[in-house]
């Protein structure tokens, strides 16, 4: 499908538009994605909702104070105070007060083991510079991995309104602008992994590839590394 999106411009535009509108609909409707169960003002709920919202991930909150379905799940899993919030992933897995990395793994934001794969380009940072690198490299047919510690969009993702970006005469929010680039990079096949912290770069090349050391995951290997 991805090859078709790129090769057939008219059809690709229709499908991309449908996928984007579907995602917007899921986010606005609060349906699809993981279900968070916990008091809406608790620190864990606010932390995970912030992470999911910043990364454009649809999700749904059930507050046990108001929701009977939440009460039933709580009776089944009897969480202790430190277990809040519970998170139910689409796979059915139930996580207890997960950190952002555990949640991202459960909903497929980081992807599986890459084994001996060697990418053409590894991009450290998913802000505007990293996203631009990913779009240009992937659209030229290079294999691309993009790693970010927090969210796509970088600093620009936190900007309420960007007035000086070429081509947007009425201005655009940083998240809307960078979400377009994020989707564009994925369309061309870039593997985007968030949240992943890059710890160091090993410049001794083996089989023509650098090794990028990651916190909590196996190193990633790539022929070129762009620190963005
Ligand atoms: C609130 C706000 C409003 C702004 N408004 C405007 C504006 O209106 N117009 C304008 O021109 N500019 C604006 N800027 C500035 C603009 O956002 C930045 O110039 C731009 O984001 C820089 O892009 P970048 O990709 O180079 O770096 P960044 O946006 O800083 O992205 C770097 C990315 O690298 C990631 N990262 C860092 N270390 C690691 C690591 N070890 N491992 C993995 N990932 C890592 C970070 O999480 C981040 O996502 C604004 C900035 C802010 C904060």
List descriptors.
single chain, 228 residues, alpha/beta, Glutaredoxin, FAD/NAD(P)-binding domain, 10 strands, 36% helix, 21% strand, binds flavin-adenine dinucleotide
How would you portray this structure in words?
With 228 residues, the protein is α/β, with parallel strands linked by helices. The chain folds into two domains: 32-106, Glutaredoxin; 118-227, FAD/NAD(P)-binding domain, CATH 3.50.50. Helices cover 36% and strands 21% of the residues. It has helices at residues 2-7, 9-29, 43-54, 68-77, 100-106, 128-139, 174-187; strands spanning 35-37, 60-62, 86-88, 94-96, 118-124, 144-147, 191-193, 198-206, 209-214, 220-227. The strands form two sheets. A six-stranded mixed beta sheet has the order 7-6-5-10-9-8, with helices on one face. Helix 6 (128-139) runs parallel beside helix 7. The mean pLDDT is 94. Flavin-adenine dinucleotide (FAD) is lined by residues 124-130, 147-150, 154-156, 158-159, 162-164, 197-198, 228. Flavin-adenine dinucleotide binds at residues 124-130, 147-150, 154-156, 158-159, 162-164, 197-198, 228.
Structural class: alpha/beta
Overall, the morphology is globular
Overall helicity: 25-40%
Number of helices: 7
Number of domains: 2
Query: N- to C-terminal separation?
Result: 29 Å
What would you report as the Rg, rounded to the nearest angstrom? Answer: 19 Å
Largest sheet: 6 strands, mixed
H-E order: HHEHEHEEHEHEHEEEE
Name of the top-level CATH class of the largest domain: Alpha Beta
Strand order of the largest sheet: 7-6-5-10-9-8
In the predicted model, the low-confidence regions spanning at least 5 consecutive residues are none
**Would you give the CATH topology of the largest domain?**
FAD/NAD(P)-binding domain
CATH superfamily of the largest domain: FAD/NAD(P)-binding domain
């Amino acid at each position: 499908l991805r090859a078709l999106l790129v090769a057939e411009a008219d059809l690709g535009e229709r499908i991309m538009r449908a996928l984007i509108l579907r995602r917007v609909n899921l986010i606005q409707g609060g349906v699809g994605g993981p279900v968070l169960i916990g008091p809406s003002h608790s620190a864990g709920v606010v932390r995970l909702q912030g992470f999911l919202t910043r990364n454009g991930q649809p999700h749904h909150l059930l507050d046990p104070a108001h929701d009977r379905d939440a009460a039933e799940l709580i009776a089944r899993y009897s969480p202790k105070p430190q277990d809040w919030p519970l998170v139910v992933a689409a796979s059915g897995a139930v996580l207890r007060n997960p950190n952002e990395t555990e949640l991202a793994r459960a909903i497929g934001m980081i992807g599986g083991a890459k084994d001996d794969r060697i990418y053409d380009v590894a991009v450290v940072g998913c802000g505007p510079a990293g996203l631009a690198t990913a779009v240009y490299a992937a659209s030229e047919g290079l294999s691309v991995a993009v790693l970010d510690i927090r969210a796509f969009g970088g600093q620009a993702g936190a900007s309420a309104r960007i007035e000086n970006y070429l081509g947007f005469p009425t201005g655009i929010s940083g998240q809307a602008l960078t979400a377009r680039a994020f989707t564009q990079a994925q369309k061309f096949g870039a593997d985007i992994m968030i949240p992943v912290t890059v710890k160091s770069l090993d410049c001794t090349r083996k089989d023509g590839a650098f090794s990028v050391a990651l916190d909590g995951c196996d190193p990633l290997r790539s022929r070129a590394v762009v620190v963005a």
